[in-house]
C-alpha cells in the first residue's frame, strides 16, 4: 500500500511539473508592437548605426527575424520613408518614420479610388467616359487627366473623402504642374502609412469592385524605372510612381505567387535620379528574397 502511494505521488508530481514546463514554453515572446497610426510631425531620421531593418509582426514567433539591408537606400536621399508588408506572413519591414511628405504623382492613386468609389462609372466628363481619364492618369501618369478629375470632383470633396478613409496625411492642395501654387507653398501630400493602407486594401479586397478594377489598371503601369526595374520579367507588379525635382516616389504590389508583398518608398532631396531609382530597384529585389 505504501509503495502504491509513493508511485501515485511521484506520477502526480511528474504531471504537474510537465504542465508548468509546457506553460512556460507557451508564454508568448514579447514582440514589438506595431506603430500607432498617429503620425509624428517630426519624423525620425535613421542614424548611421541603423543599417538594417527588422521585421515586425502581430503574430507571436520565436524564430529569428529576417534582416534587410537599407544602407544604400537611406544614403540615396536626405529623407527616405520605406515600408514593406508581406501578406502571407503578416510581417512588416519599415523605417517607422511616417509623416506627411510630397506625394508627386502618387496622389493619383487616391484620386482614382475616389473616382471609382464616389462617381457614377457611366459618368462622362468633357464628353469622355470616366475610364478614359483614369487609365492614362495612372498608367502614363497623365497630368492633364489628373487635373481634369481634380477640377471635376473638387479638392474639398477629395480631401474630405481621404479623411473618411483614414488617409489622414493625404491632401490635394494644387493642380499638377502648377508651379505658381508651388511657389506659394501649396503642395500635394501623402505618407508612408497612407500609401501602405491603400495598398493593403487594394490587395486584400482585389476580388471585389472597385479594387479589382484599380488593380487591373495599376498592373498596366508603363513607368517601370523603380520598383519593377531589377525584378525578373515574369514577376507581376502593380505600381504608381511619382517624380518632382525634389521627390522620387514609387508604391506598389509585387504579386509573386509565393511571396506577395506591398512596398512603399517615398523620398525627398535625392542625391541623383539614377542613384535613388537604382536603390529602390535593388531594395525591392532584396525584399523578394525574404521568406523564400
From TrEMBL:
The keyword Signal applies. Pfam families: Beta-lactamase2. Residues 30-49 have a biased composition (Basic and acidic residues). The keyword Hydrolase applies. Keywords: Hydrolase, Signal. Residues 52-63 have a biased composition (Low complexity). GO terms for molecular function: hydrolase activity. Residues 1-21 form the signal peptide. Transmembrane segments: none annotated. Residues 26-67 are annotated as: Disordered. InterPro entries: Beta-lactam/transpept-like, Beta-lactam_cat, Beta-lactam_class-A. Residues 129-266 form the Beta-lactamase class A catalytic domain. PANTHER family: BETA-LACTAMASE, BETA-LACTAMASE-TYPE TRANSPEPTIDASE FOLD CONTAINING PROTEIN. This is Serine hydrolase.
Amino acid at each position: 500500500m505504501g509503495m502504491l502511494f509513493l508511485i501515485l505521488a511521484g506520477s502526480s508530481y511528474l504531471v504537474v511539473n510537465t504542465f508548468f514546463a509546457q506553460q512556460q514554453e507557451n508564454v508568448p515572446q514579447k514582440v514589438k508592437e506595431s506603430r500607432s497610426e498617429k503620425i509624428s510631425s517630426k519624423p525620425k531620421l535613421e542614424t548611421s548605426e541603423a543599417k538594417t531593418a527588422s521585421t515586425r509582426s502581430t503574430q507571436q514567433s520565436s524564430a529569428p527575424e529576417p534582416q534587410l539591408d537599407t544602407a544604400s537606400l537611406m544614403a540615396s536621399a536626405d529623407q527616405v520613408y520605406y515600408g514593406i508588408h508581406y501578406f502571407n506572413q503578416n510581417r512588416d519591414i519599415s523605417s517607422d518614420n511616417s509623416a506627411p511628405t510630397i506625394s508627386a504623382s502618387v496622389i493619383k492613386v487616391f484620386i482614382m479610388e475616389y473616382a471609382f468609389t464616389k462617381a457614377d462609372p457611366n459618368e462622362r466628363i468633357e464628353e469622355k467616359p470616366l475610364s478614359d481619364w483614369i487609365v492614362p492618369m495612372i498608367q502614363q501618369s497623365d497630368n492633364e487627366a489628373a487635373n481634369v478629375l481634380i477640377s471635376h470632383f473638387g479638392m474639398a470633396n477629395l480631401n474630405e473623402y481621404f479623411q473618411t478613409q483614414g488617409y489622414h496625411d493625404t491632401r490635394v492642395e494644387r493642380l499638377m504642374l502648377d508651379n505658381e501654387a508651388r511657389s506659394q507653398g501649396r503642395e500635394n501630400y501623402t505618407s508612408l502609412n497612407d500609401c501602405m493602407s491603400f495598398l493593403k486594401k487594394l490587395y486584400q479586397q482585389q476580388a471585389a469592385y472597385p479594387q479589382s478594377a484599380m488593380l487591373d489598371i495599376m498592373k498596366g503601369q508603363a513607368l517601370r524605372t523603380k520598383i519593377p526595374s531589377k525584378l525578373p520579367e515574369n514577376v507581376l507588379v502593380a505600381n504608381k510612381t511619382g517624380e518632382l525635382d525634389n521627390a522620387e516616389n514609387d508604391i506598389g504590389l509585387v504579386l509573386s505567387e509565393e511571396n506577395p508583398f506591398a512596398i512603399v518608398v517615398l523620398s525627398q532631396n535625392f542625391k541623383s535620379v539614377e542613384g535613388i531609382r537604382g536603390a529602390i530597384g535593388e531594395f525591392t529585389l532584396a525584399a523578394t528574397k525574404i521568406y523564400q
